[in-house]
């Protein structure tokens, strides 16, 4: 009887209830994933930063969240610098990486979970950029198809002394540091070069052309996608960490082996 029922269901083309639930769940997951991926890439690009409505929304967000440190007109206070002329790129970097708003005063703002949505970040960027001209958020074409080889050379010349040749970061003076560059969005790397946040120098288009910035981004992406071929990279911190590793574990093993052999011979 059961075989007849299943054969008739197959002939009629009807699916069982479990199959329908699985198909609906897969469809929802695929749709949601595609929406998140699309919106994270193009949220800023799809918003007109010159729109009066967007600027007005950014003004309200600024007054509620940023004016305490930066002043009601972004003129700066004793607790925060002026934002007039920093442009939309600086706001997108600082707010888009969670560095702003700061949790507490310190040597430098730390990267943390983002406090605003992509739309709110764009509105804040629109408001600040409306106050005075400044560096703009790069377009997607400014971030793609760079030359990895040239980017590696440019990175070693201009960036490796602080960020390490592998982008592993490094310590600076007075509790400051150059952050790790792995896992950083391409747009934020470009904005950092363009605006020089905190201890970083500004690499304007006369220092590094837009194509050269694109090449550096390509090198960082390649470096992140291709781990060290030499095995354990010890944090990519260079010869100091490697030498310390050999000193502690290599010589330590030799000393321990010597003590063990001596004890056995006695």
Question: What secondary-structure arrangement, pairings included, does this model have?
Answer:
Elements: H1 2-12, H2 17-42, H3 52-65, H4 67-70, H5 87-96, H6 118-131, H7 148-158, H8 160-163, E1 170-171, E2 177-178, H9 186-195, H10 210-225, H11 239-265
Antiparallel strand pairs: 1-2
Can you tell me about this structure?
The protein is mainly α and about 270 residues long. The chain has 3 domains: about 50-135, Cytochrome Bc1 Complex, Chain D, domain 2, CATH 1.10.760.10; about 140-225, Cytochrome c-like domain (Cytochrome Bc1 Complex, Chain D, domain 2); about 235-260. Helices cover about 55% and strands about 0% of the residues. The protein has helices at about 1-10, 15-40, 50-65, 65-70, 85-95, 120-130, 150-160, 160-165, 185-195, 210-225, 240-265, and strands at about 170, 175-180. Strands 1-2 form a two-stranded antiparallel sheet. Helix 3 crosses helix 6 (about 120-130) and helix 5 packs across helix 9 (about 185-195). It is elongated, with a radius of gyration of 27 Å. Mean pLDDT is about 85; it is low at about 30-45. Its main location: membrane. Pfam families: Cytochrom_C, Cytochrome_CBB3.
């Amino acid at each position: 009887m059961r075989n007849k029922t299943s054969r008739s269901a197959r002939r009629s083309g009807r699916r069982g209830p479990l199959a329908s639930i699985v198909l609906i769940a897969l469809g929802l997951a695929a749709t949601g994933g595609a929406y998140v991926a699309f919106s994270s890439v193009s949220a800023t690009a799809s918003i007109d930063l010159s729109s009066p409505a967007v600027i007005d929304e950014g003004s309200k967000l600024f007054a509620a969240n940023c004016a305490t440190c930066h002043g009601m007109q972004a003129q700066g206070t004793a607790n925060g610098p002026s934002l007039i002329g920093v442009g939309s790129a600086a706001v997108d970097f600082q707010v888009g990486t969670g560095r702003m708003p700061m949790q507490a005063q310190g040597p430098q703002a730390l990267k943390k979970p983002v406090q605003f949505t992509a739309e709110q970040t764009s509105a804040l960027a629109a408001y600040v950029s409306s106050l005075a001209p400044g560096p703009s958020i790069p377009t997607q074409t400014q971030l793609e198809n760079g030359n990895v080889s040239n980017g590696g050379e440019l990175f070693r010349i201009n960036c490796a002394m602080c960020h390490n040749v592998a982008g592993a970061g490094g310590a600076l003076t007075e509790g400051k540091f150059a952050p790790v560059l792995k896992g950083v969005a391409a747009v934020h790397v470009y904005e950092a070069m363009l605006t020089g946040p905190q201890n970083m120098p500004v690499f304007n288009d006369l220092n590094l052309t837009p194509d050269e910035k694109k090449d550096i981004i390509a090198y960082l992406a390649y470096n992140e996608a291709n781990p060290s071929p030499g095995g354990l990279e010890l944090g990519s911190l260079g010869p100091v960490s490697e030498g310390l590793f050999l000193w502690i574990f290599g010589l330590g093993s030799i000393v321990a082996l010597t003590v063990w052999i001596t004890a056995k011979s006695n």
